[in-house]
């Protein structure tokens, strides 16, 4: 029997009850550690295993993707996660990284168990180049790779219990069958609050700096971006325009730490640091997406001013942001004019192609939108947002067989990062009269978003719809595995029921 809604409510109240004392109690004193680059990573291995740490992160993310501040945008998600994985691959020891954006004007970022890193939109907008953003992401990956989060959770019982309570609430919601249709709580606000209480020691911060700088240099970024970004945030509280704590307050700087960071940056300076056009496009889009959660000036006006004072990729991205903002305001004519100004800068970019297709659709020209999306997807075969847009346009045009043909190879490439691909394929298969594959794909979608009971129902329906022996065997195995996962999650949540 699924757990009742009152149980979820009680678990969420448990989270809040744990949160308040965690915010009021001072941090535990840091243990003395050797100078230099200490090895802090393994001290929590017994108390918080890597497997539990990964499960914690997965459970919180399953609930957190329904947080209203979560930026559910494939272009932004692909850019940030690709950046994080590129950095992590440069010797961090982190096997899995997912970087996501939060609509919040404060200058902040936080790492959660399992390699999940949240970046506030305000932090991205405060950066002046891609190396500064890479510096913050690399620093957070440094904390994850050295298992500082696990270590501090083991030392600080209040924060550890809060995260376990958040996990229990997330798993209870999934066990109740809430699925992706429920409205999530302010999960990432709680996660950031917990992160602010972990209070890494000075040696841990220095270690994350050094590991991060090594990753940045190996990836071709300017290591000075880390010190310039952290130094600017530390100098003035005005960079924190939101209600939450600033990154500078949760990662306090010292003269010694800044000096060490600057010396290391000079020693490993990069002659021609990398700077992608996508950074500017993502930054412009986040300015628009943040506007509903910020008292800041009109982003369209800000982006128009930026476009007029720059050229090339940065100007094209600013015009793109204006076009995207005007489209959100239901002004397709104004958006089309701004989009044409972006194209006139002579910069080709997948986010421009994707917006062009959306503009065609806003003008009720489905044929043009489909052609635009198909041309863009052919030009940028690794761009997920364009692939999703192409399939959606084919569906709008009633071409479901073609949509499935396009989607299925992309499920192999990106399905775990973009669960919506499975849902889209299932929708087309339902219209094509293929219930077995439809149910299997919906089961995969629900499993990836953390709604295991809903996934189980879909698997059972697929099993009932087929008489093919091999397929029945595969489905039987999936059903058994899903039931086991559901029981494991319920066993965990029972520890929190009162």
Automatic annotation (TrEMBL):
One of its GO terms (biological process) is proteolysis involved in protein catabolic process. Residues 79-263 form the Peptidase M48 domain. The keyword Protease applies. GO terms for molecular function: metal ion binding; metalloendopeptidase activity. InterPro entries: Mito/Outer_Membr_Metalloprot, Peptidase_M48. It holds the Pfam family Peptidase_M48. Its cofactor is Zn(2+). Residues 1-32 form the signal peptide. GO terms for cellular component: membrane. Keywords: Hydrolase, Metal-binding, Metalloprotease, Protease, Signal, Zinc. This is M48 family metalloprotease. It comes from Verticiella sediminum.
């Amino acid at each position: 029997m699924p757990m009742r809604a009152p149980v979820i409510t009680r678990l969420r109240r448990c989270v809040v009850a744990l949160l308040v004392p965690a915010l009021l109690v001072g941090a535990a004193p840091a243990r003395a550690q050797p100078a230099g680059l200490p090895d802090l990573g393994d001290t929590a291995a017994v108390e918080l295993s890597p497997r539990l740490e990964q499960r914690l992160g997965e459970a919180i993310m399953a609930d957190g993707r329904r947080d209203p501040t979560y930026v559910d945008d494939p272009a932004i998600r692909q850019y940030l996660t690709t950046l994080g994985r590129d950095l992590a691959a440069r010797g961090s020891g982190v096997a899995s990284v997912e970087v996501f954006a939060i609509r919040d004007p404060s200058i902040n970022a936080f790492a959660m168990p399992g390699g999940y890193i949240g970046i506030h939109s305000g932090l991205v907008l405060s950066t002046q180049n891609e190396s500064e953003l890479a510096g913050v992401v690399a620093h957070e990956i440094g904390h994850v790779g050295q298992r500082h989060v696990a270590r501090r959770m083991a030392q600080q019982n209040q924060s550890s219990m809060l995260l376990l309570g958040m996990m229990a609430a997330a798993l209870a919601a999934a066990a109740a069958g809430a699925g992706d249709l429920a409205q999530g709580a302010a999960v990432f606000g709680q996660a950031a609050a917990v992160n602010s209480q972990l209070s890494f020691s000075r040696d841990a911060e220095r270690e994350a700096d050094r590991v991060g700088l090594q990753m940045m240099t190996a990836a071709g970024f300017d290591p000075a971006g880390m010190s310039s970004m952290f130094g600017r945030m530390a100098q003035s509280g005005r960079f924190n325009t939101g209600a939450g704590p600033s990154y500078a307050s949760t990662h306090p700087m010292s003269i010694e730490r800044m000096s060490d960071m600057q010396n290391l940056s000079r020693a490993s300076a990069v002659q021609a640091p990398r700077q992608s056009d996508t950074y500017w496009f993502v930054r412009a889009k986040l300015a628009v997406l943040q506007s509903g959660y910020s008292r800041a000036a009109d982003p369209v006006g800000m982006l128009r001013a930026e476009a007029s004072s720059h050229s090339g990729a940065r100007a094209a991205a600013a015009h793109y942001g204006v076009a995207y903002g005007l489209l959100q305001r239901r002004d397709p004519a104004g958006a089309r004019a701004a989009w044409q100004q972006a194209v006139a800068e002579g910069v080709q970019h997948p986010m421009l192609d994707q917006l062009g297709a959306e503009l065609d659709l806003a003008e009720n020209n489905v044929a043009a939108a489909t052609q635009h999306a198909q041309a863009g997807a052919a030009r940028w075969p690794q761009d997920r947002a364009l692939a999703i847009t192409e399939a959606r346009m084919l569906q709008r045009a009633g071409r479901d067989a073609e949509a499935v043909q396009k989607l299925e190879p992309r499920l192999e490439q990106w399905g775990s990062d973009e669960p919506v691909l499975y849902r889209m394929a299932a929708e087309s298969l339902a219209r094509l009269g293929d219930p077995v594959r439809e149910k299997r794909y919906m089961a995969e979608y629900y499993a990836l978003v953390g709604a295991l009971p809903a996934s189980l129902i879909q698997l059972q329906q697929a099993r009932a719809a087929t008489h093919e022996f091999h397929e029945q065997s595969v489905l039987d195995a999936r059903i058994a595995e899903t039931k086991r996962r559901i029981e494991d999650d319920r066993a965990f949540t029972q520890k929190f029921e009162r």
